[in-house]
User: Which sequence fits this backbone?
């Protein structure tokens, strides 16, 4: 026979489980197809553990931890998963948030989806070629776009511009 207290506790926990599932909801892009698709094992073999956590599991790095935060040379920031150029250094700015920030991606480089993790609604940014999670975009950036693409630096690689011949 089932104890009524156990039954009541089980029933009472159902709303909590539903909320937990909502907080941990996976991105809508999980079913989306990308030009570069690899197995989980292939991604793990290619990426560092931190890159894998960010790009494939929608993790994030500690603020102020990315060496790319202080990268100020001319060049291009590309996806660490597939090397697709994502942002020009011309659009990088100091947001004071602890993550590399840009006001505009290169055309066609990123996609967005609604992210409902952690009990809030945000706009998640991912690589348009491999689907790797890059960060989030917010509407508190500088002109001309007013957007702040707050990117995880470990999801990016930097390619400096070639020195110009004089």
Assistant:
């Amino acid at each position: 026979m089932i104890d009524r207290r156990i039954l009541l506790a089980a029933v009472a926990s159902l709303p909590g489980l539903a909320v937990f599932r909502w907080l941990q909801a996976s991105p809508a892009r999980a079913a989306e197809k990308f030009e570069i698709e690899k197995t989980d094992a292939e991604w793990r073999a290619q990426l560092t553990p931190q890159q894998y956590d960010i790009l494939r599991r929608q993790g994030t790095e500690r603020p102020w931890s990315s060496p790319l935060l202080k990268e100020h040379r001319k060049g291009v920031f590309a996806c660490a998963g597939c090397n697709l150029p994502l942002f020009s250094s011309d659009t990088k700015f100091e947001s004071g948030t602890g993550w590399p920030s840009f006001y505009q991606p290169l055309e066609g480089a990123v996609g967005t989806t609604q992210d409902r993790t952690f009990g809030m609604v945000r706009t998640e940014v991912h690589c348009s070629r491999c689907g790797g999670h890059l960060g989030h975009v917010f509407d508190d950036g500088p002109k001309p776009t007013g957007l702040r693409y707050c990117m995880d630096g470990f999801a990016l690689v930097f390619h400096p511009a070639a020195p110009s011949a004089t």
Summary: Residues 6-11, 13-28 have pLDDT under 50 and may be disordered. Residues 4-160 form a domain with the Metal Binding Protein, Guanine Nucleotide Exchange Factor; Chain A fold (CATH 2.170.150.20). The CA atoms of residues 141 and 147 lie 4 Å apart.
